[in-house]
Amino acid sequence: MLADTSATLLPDGRVRMYIFGQGRGVVSAVSVAADGAAFVAEAGSRLPDGSGMPRVVVNPAGGWRLYFTSGGGIRSAVSTNGLNFTVEEGFRITAEAAGFTGTTAGAASGATVIRLADGRYRMYFSDLPRPGDPPGGHYIKSAVSTDQLRWTMEAGVRVGPGAPTLTESAEHPFALANADGSITLYYGKFAGPGGTATEGLYHSTSADGLTFAAETYDVFFGNDPDAIRLSDGTLVMYYGQFDAQVGGTINLARCPEPAAAAGHR
Questions:
Q1: pTM
Q2: Which of 122, 134, 150, 194 has the fewest CB atoms nearer than 10 Å to its CB?
Q3: Which class in CATH covers the domain with range 2-254?
C-alpha cells in the first residue's frame, strides 16, 4: 500500500519521490529521467514504520528536511544526501497548538511548507478524521516560522469550515509558490453525505496566502496532491488513488500554471 507522496528535484534534473509505504514507514524512489514519469525504488526506508504523510523541503542549512506525522503531531528529520535522515527533537506542530485535539493521534496532515518573500516560511496542513468517521468537515490551517523548526499558528482557517469564503471540506493540502508572489493550494474535497460539490482534487490561488476566494476542480477522486515544477519548467502534480487490484497508487497529471489571484493580475 503506497500513499502520500512528496517530490523534490535533484541536481541532475531527476525527481526523488518520498512515499508512505504501509508497514515500512517512509520509502523513496527516483525518476528514470527528468520528465518525472517513471520511477525506480531505492533500497531501504528513509524513516521507520509509524512515520506517515512525508513532505520534503530544501533545508536552508543544506540538504533536505522531511516533515512527517508521528504520535501527537508533525515532526521533522534532516538529511544531507536525501537518503539517510536524522529525526529532529520534538514536534513542529502539536495537536493542541493546531486545535485538532478531537482528531486522530497524527493530529494533522503532512505539512507543506513554502518560503515567503520576507524570508519566513509558511506551513499549511489540515485536520485528520478519526477512524470510522464519515467524510467531510475538514479544514486547512497555517503557521509561520523563521527557521523551519519553531512554528507559530496563524489565526483563522484558510479553506474549509470557518474560512471566510471557501467553507466546504478541504484536506491534505499542498502549497505551490508562484512567480508573481501568489500561493496556490491543492487539496482534496470529500464532502460526504449531502454534499453537492464534485469530489476530488481542487486548487485555489491567493494573493497573500491567507485568504482563498475561488477554487478550480482538477482531478476526479484523487487525493494527497504534491505539485512540482520540473527542470524544464513543466508543472506536474503527483496524487494518490486506489486500485482494487493493487491497492494505493501514485499517479501523474500535467497541469497548467495556476491563474493569477484577484489583485495579482
A1: 0.93
A2: 194
A3: mainly beta
